[in-house]
Specification:
By secondary structure, this protein is of the alpha/beta class. It has nine helices and twelve strands.
């Protein structure tokens, strides 16, 4: 009926909706019989809706619009054509783990939007617990008063590597001992961060107090400061090229990253697709 009103011609309306002109005419007659009134009348300009036809068409437009919205909603849910994903992670995951997973998901579902919050593990865990974040990547174990409300769905091993300025005594070496860093200036991650805890604990265990001259959150910033000769630094192996970085001979500086979500919440289809991409990476 809407197509007839828009085209003012039965044949053109039938072509626009992909049916034959006789079939459309028969449908109109059947509907008019059911309603007990004419919906269209012929004029010199073609078919025009009667007053009853105008009322019917207005309601038909509302119905068509609702159907289209329902169709889009289902396609968004099942086909992941739209939607948003809220993820929290530290510097390593944000800069070096998330991009590949996001690329995989957006290749199949370009309509998805991502909200990425870079923060320390404690803040990320708090965001997931509160529901502000769908997923989080944190250093394990989870340190949060309500940590039992989170479930770890995937673990990722990481190793922290020493980097030194060009010309440093350890430059070109494959390993170091903590005693090698006595008196060295250190460019470190901020105090209280999970990475900093790993470094401080390991150095203290071997009786070495690090001389931290600068605290940063960004891996790239630490790399640049080390290159500038400010001091030595520690960064994730994910932030280095193959063969770069110096391993600790007194014991590898390892940690485990965990992808976490709320135990009692079902993920949206969008977040679920991203979760799978992270697990399968």
């Amino acid at each position: 009926m809407v197509a007839i009103a828009e085209h003012g011609h039965m044949t053109r309306a039938a072509e626009s909706v992909g049916v034959s002109q006789p079939a459309l005419s028969a449908a109109v007659r059947k509907l008019e019989d059911e309603l007990g009134t004419e919906l269209f009348h012929r004029t010199g300009h073609g078919l025009e809706p009667t007053e009853a036809g105008k009322v019917f068409i207005e309601h038909a437009k509302v119905t068509i619009q609702s159907c289209e919205q329902a169709r889009l909603a289902v396609r968004s849910l099942v086909g992941l054509e739209t939607g948003s994903i809220r993820v929290g992670a530290g510097a390593t995951a944000t800069g070096y783990l998330l991009p590949a997973a996001i690329q995989v998901v957006r290749k199949d579902h370009p309509g998805l939007k991502f909200s990425i919050r870079e923060a320390g593990s404690c803040a990320v865990a708090a965001g997931v617990v509160s529901g502000e974040l769908d997923l989080g990547i944190v250093t394990l174990p989870v340190v949060h008063p309500r940590g039992d409300e989170l479930v770890v769905i995937h673990e990722i091993g990481d190793e922290l590597m020493l980097i030194v300025p060009s010309g440093h005594a350890l430059d070109g070496r494959k390993s170091f001992r903590w005693s090698d860093l006595e008196g060295d200036a250190v460019v470190a991650f901020e105090a209280g961060s999970a990475v900093r805890e790993v470094i401080d604990s390991a150095s203290a265990e071997h009786g070495v107090g690090l001389s931290v001259v600068m605290e940063l959150r960004s891996i790239e910033a630490i790399v640049q400061m080390v290159r500038a000769g400010i001091g030595v630094g520690f960064v994730s192996r994910y932030g280095l090229e193959e063969g770069e970085g110096i391993r600790c001979k007194d014991g590898a500086l390892t940690r485990t990253l965990g992808v976490v979500r709320r135990r009692d919440r079902f993920l949206s289809h969008a977040a679920g697709a991203f979760e799978r991409a992270l697990v399968e990476r």
